[in-house]
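Running log. JK asked me to keep both predictions on one page so they can be read side by side. First protein, sequence followed by its tokens:
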Amino acid sequence: MTTETTTPDLTALVLVGTLTPSPAPSSSELLGRQVLAALGAHGVTGEVVRVVDHDVRPGVQKDMGEGDAWPAIREKMLAADILVIATPIWMGQPSSVTKRALERLDAELSEEDDEGRLLTYGKVAAVAVVGNEDGAHHVSAEVFQALNDVGFTIPAAAITYWVGEAMGSTDYQDLDETPEKVTTTTRTLAANTAHLARLLKQQGYPPA
């Protein structure tokens, strides 16, 4: 008998806001991939997109013209049930790459279905944050508010994060193993996010 944890009926997109282009390693991508793996235990498949690898133009339109890579990323987002934003902390803030992606999501406020609902209604969002400075809660608060503003639903305990010693030089990817607290927090994020996404997929929001 199949269960909620084994039925592969949900999809996720992880947008990584690292400033570092591929193929260089990224702590943000590492944690984002760990979130995707944890979601896999709940019947979720998906992919990771490192935003900095693509020519995402500044702006608040869904398409900023020839060469803009955001429309293709947007199509992936609209096709997914879950959006995960994985961002580093820089100067106490989400990265500039993350902020650019959030600015582009502003265009969703003008996109509605036939019943007047935003196309993002029914989609669930979670956040993963890494850094070697304080600020994980501040960063998640900024990202959560932006995502909720443009129609995403935020589950309970929808953040996982790791921050190293303040003013230190150790990155998340430098750790010999993932701290148990991070692992359990990521599992909780995955369970709650998949559960809520499945409920909303079965019964979405009513028209206003």
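And the second, directly underneath as requested:
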Amino acid sequence: MSTTPSPITDLITRAHALMARIPESAVALLGRFSVAAVFWKSGQTKIEGLQIDIVDGSFELGWPRLSSSAVDLFRDEYQLPLLPPELGAVMAAAGEHLLPLLLLAGLGTRFAALGLLGMTAVIQFLVYPGAYPTHGVWAAVLLWLMVRGPGRLSIDHWLARR
């Protein structure tokens, strides 16, 4: 019996070694940016007066205020139990702006990810239970950030080194 690896085994071993060299900080940064973008864009639909989309390059600077459609959304579509629509709209708009900013900066990353994971759970179980494939991806990224942290390209990393 030969102990020489087959060409396929050798190729797989080399591929695994290459993949293992992907920096975790790059994965964390991509995860932070991607999840932050999802929640930020959702938050932007709930406010007026301040619109920032760095990907599209559109900026409308001004004082943010809750849009009337946000309250209607919570009253008519989301219908969260035990939470008045006015409060739910304010909480969601604030959380969908503050937590993504913290995630992008890598400041309090694990706690920001925990907050967004809580929002994801509410959305999954109380609002859109059929969207589990999407919410599962968000949850996986957020859990990874909670377990592994934000990576080197973050304020958290800079603070930890001081």
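Observation for JK regarding the second prediction: The radius of gyration is 20 Å.
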